[in-house]
Design goal:
Number of strands: 9
CATH superfamily of the largest domain: Cell wall hydrolase SleB, domain 1
Helix content: 40-55%
Number of domains: 2
Radius of gyration: 21 Å
Shape: globular
Oligomer: single chain
CATH topology of the largest domain: Arc Repressor Mutant, subunit A
Order of helices and strands: HEHHEEHHEHHHEEHHEHEE
Strand content: 5-15%
Strand order of the largest sheet: 7-9-8
């Protein structure tokens, strides 16, 4: 709560001033948005997308490093929105009702014009922001977030924000897979057959602090953004490892190849 200044007990005045300063900081501090993946549709515009997701155009441009208002069909944009994991018994109507949004908005946000849903499918809930770590797609704590951000920083330094989220997405996908350990630290520090799964763990680069962008990318991945499109591995396109190249490619972002 914010309190106005009134005459009275000096200690109470001091407390009110401290509370007022804290309130101002909360209001003016930048908020790191958590991202969902939205694919631009024909006839879309930043104005339409901003209305759908109740996000200012300026924020959309900032989050996606856009310097103009030009977008194109098929382009991937990161938008601030909650993700819903479909469970048995769900329907588009019930999901829209649950979150208090129009059914047409739910369809538009997901380009979903039929009624078929599969358990485990992710749907963007436009106009609804994630409220807590309970909305993340996998459990995590502050230490996990920091570790993931440091891995992203070490693996994707110099790459775009999209590539950084992709690295985080691979770790999240492994945590969700029954074939890998089920926690972020266990996945990142995993050693199989004497080989480290992530080079920065072996060479110590993971101990370097993460940038704000890498932290933001880690959060985006934890809340369901996955430009790697379900990948379980990534590598630089200069690699000559035929075992990796033989795997199914899911995404190619900058110089990074994502496969599963």
């Amino acid at each position: 709560m914010c309190y106005s200044h009134k005459k009275g007990d000096p200690m109470k005045q001091l407390i009110r001033i401290v509370l007022l300063v804290m309130c101002i900081l909360l209001v003016t501090s930048p908020v790191t948005a958590l991202a969902a993946d939205y694919t631009v549709q024909p006839n879309d515009s930043l104005y339409k997308i901003s209305r759908l997701f109740q996000t200012p155009i300026s924020i959309l441009k900032q989050e996606n490093s856009l310097t103009t208002d030009t977008i194109y069909p098929g382009q991937l944009l990161y938008v601030s929105a909650k993700l819903h994991l479909v469970v048995s018994g769900d329907s588009l109507y019930l999901i829209a009702k649950k979150y208090g949004i129009p059914l047409t908005s739910l369809r538009q946000a997901n380009n979903k014009w039929d009624d078929k849903l599969l358990p485990g499918q992710k749907l963007i809930i436009p106009g609804v922001m994630p409220s807590s770590s309970m909305d993340a797609v996998i459990p995590y704590n502050d230490s996990d977030l920091n570790l993931l951000a440091r891995l992203i920083e070490a693996e994707a330094v110099g790459e775009t924000y999209e590539a950084k989220i992709g690295v985080g997405g691979v770790v999240v996908n492994r945590v969700q897979s029954p074939d890998w350990p089920n926690t972020i630290p266990a996945v990142i520090n995993h050693v199989s057959g004497g080989y480290y799964q992530f080079t920065p763990v072996k060479n110590g680069m993971i101990n370097q602090p993460a940038s704000e962008e890498s932290i933001k990318a880690a959060k985006a991945a934890l809340y369901g953004s996955d430009p790697s499109k379900g990948a379980l591995f990534y590598f630089d396109d200069s690699s000559t490892n035929q075992w990796l190249w033989a795997k199914t490619k899911t995404a190619y972002i900058d110089s990074m190849v994502f496969v599963k």
